[in-house]
Amino acid sequence: MKILAIAGSNSDTSINKLLASYAASLIQNAEIEVVDMNEFEMPIYKHQREVESGVPQEAKNFAAKIDAADVLIISLSEHNGTYSSAFKNVFDWTSRIKDRAVWNEKPMLLMATAPGARGGLGVLEAAAKRFPLHGGNIVDTFTLPFFNDNFDKSAHKISNDEKDNELKEKTAKLSALEIILEK
Ligand SMILES: Cc1cc2nc3c(=O)[nH]c(=O)nc-3n(C[C@H](O)[C@H](O)[C@H](O)COP(=O)(O)O)c2cc1C
């Protein structure tokens, strides 16, 4: 099973990247690629840019990585209650590629984490509502509140047992898809 773990962040110390890669590591015998938005940095979407030069290669690269994956594990950083600008720009450009849905119906675990009590619930709710309109096949959602208390960076794992078990149950749903995908 090929997993694309996506951090919807361009921070070099992204907590969502840590969470996405931890969640991916819970799936046995998987080929894992972890990406963040730095890899797909491009000019901010502008109608005239699209008319003049088309969709930038970086957005096409993002789409190609989605297409090459069997499942997606995505964790979004929350900026002012919604997507980070870095993620939104990649999402916007990718949505302009002709004749494709951004997420291409790939089974997805949709997550968010933040240092605060809501754990990025605002961006998670926005994405859960919007992604299905772009080929998003959301198998489950997960938030990790109080990241700094609930994630042990040196052990690279969730330190809150209840939340860790919840994530393990949710990633098991993706593992179970392997049987279906191989058929
Ligand atoms: C501009 C800005 C806005 C933010 N807004 C929120 C917010 O609305 N809710 C929240 O929980 N955290 C907010 N934060 C804190 C982020 O959750 C925190 O920076 C987190 O590390 C972002 O995830 P990342 O490290 O994966 O990029 C904000 C941070 C910035 C820089």
UniProtKB/TrEMBL annotation:
Domain of life: Bacteria
Ranges of residues in domain NADPH-dependent FMN reductase-like: 1-142
Pfam families hit by this protein: FMN_red (PF03358)
SUPFAM superfamilies xref list: Flavoproteins
UniProt xrefs under InterPro entries: Flavoprotein-like_sf, FMN_Rdtase-like_dom, NAD(P)H-dep_reductase
The protein's name in its UniProt record: NAD(P)H-dependent FMN reductase
Native source organism of the sequence: Chryseobacterium profundimaris
Biological classification of the source: Bacteria, Pseudomonadati, Bacteroidota, Flavobacteriia, Flavobacteriales
